[in-house]
Amino acid sequence: MPANADETATNREYKDSVFTLLFGEKENLLELYNAIENTSYGSDTDIKITTLRNALYKGQINDISFVINGKVVVLVEHQSTINENIPLRMLTYMSKVYGKTVPRRKIYQETQITIPRPEFIVLYNGNKKYPDSKVLKLSDMFAGSCAGDTPDLELVVRVFNINKGHNKKFAERSKLLKGYETFVYLAKKHAQTMSRDAAIDLAIDECIRQKVLKDFLEEHSSEVRNMLFHKWNWDEALDVRYEEGEAKGVAIGEARGVKKGMKKGIAIGRDETLLQTARNMKAKGLNIALIAEITGLSEKDIEGLDI
């Protein structure tokens, strides 16, 4: 079947990701968390899922939040470039989780209540080089230096690289995580030499033959194919918009002599090249609804663009 026909079939919007589909099950989630923290929570462990829809990433669910042993954990998969603003986004996310899990009337009672201790983990498997682990702090975003001071408000996010070859101890502790790393690696590798649909299909077939995530992929192959394709489309569309806006913005900033030229120029450039960016996304075969969601243009305007 031609690639374009495949793309039409798979170019639908899915809210969940392969990551949340695989690790959203309690048993699988416990295995993953045990691998990351080197703990041994058993299948009888009390765990409550508290994931919020569309709270961190618009149009896609790459996060799982859950309460376990007096902790509320926010676990996020990140396939594109790490967003250095993630501590602030986690802060707003956490306030919503507490709002969902703590009865409102208890907040106003005189006696102190007990709330789960927060824990924030990001698992990175993008294409760019990244260390095995990194800590991102909310205080690093504060205006002025906090050196030597203890900020009144802090939030710490631990980022772990789970690309194949990184943090091998995690994969050694979790067969599911090792299988997931292998599947993502194969899909990316094949996508360098063939269409995305063909790459995903080949990765699924290879994993099933090698008994890597065999049961999961046999049961969910169609969902996995569509979810991963949508994810790649989303990331590419964002990259196109940013790169074109940045290049055009810098040129405009220089030409106009704008103060703080690059920063302001980028903003101007993004506005003035929106139609061209949408046109280029459309030329790449990206979904009209996805382009509209990212650019803010109407689907009717996008459909009318010449490519």
Structure overview:
- The protein is built from 13 helices and 6 strands.
- The chain is α/β, with parallel strands linked by helices and 307 residues long.
- The chain has 2 domains: 3-231, no CATH class; 232-303, no CATH class.
- The protein has a 6-stranded mixed beta sheet.
- Strand 2 and strand 3 form a beta hairpin.
- It is globular, with a radius of gyration of 22 Å.
List keywords for this structure.
single chain, alpha/beta, 307 residues, 6 strands
Structural class: alpha/beta
Spatial separation of the terminal alpha carbons:
24 Å
Indicate the overall shape.
Answer: globular
Biggest sheet: strand arrangement: 1-2-3-4-6-5
Kindly provide the radius of gyration, computed on alpha-carbon positions and rounded to a whole number of angstroms.
22 Å
Portion in strands: 5-15%
Contiguous uncertain segments of 5+ residues: 1-14, 246-271
What is the percent of helical residues?
Answer: 40-55%
Count of discrete domains: 2
Total strand count, please? 6
User: Quick one: biggest sheet?
Assistant: 6 strands, mixed
**Count of individual helical segments:** 13
Give the helices and strands as they follow along the chain.
Answer: HHHEEEHHEEEHHHHHHHH
Whole-number mean pLDDT: 80
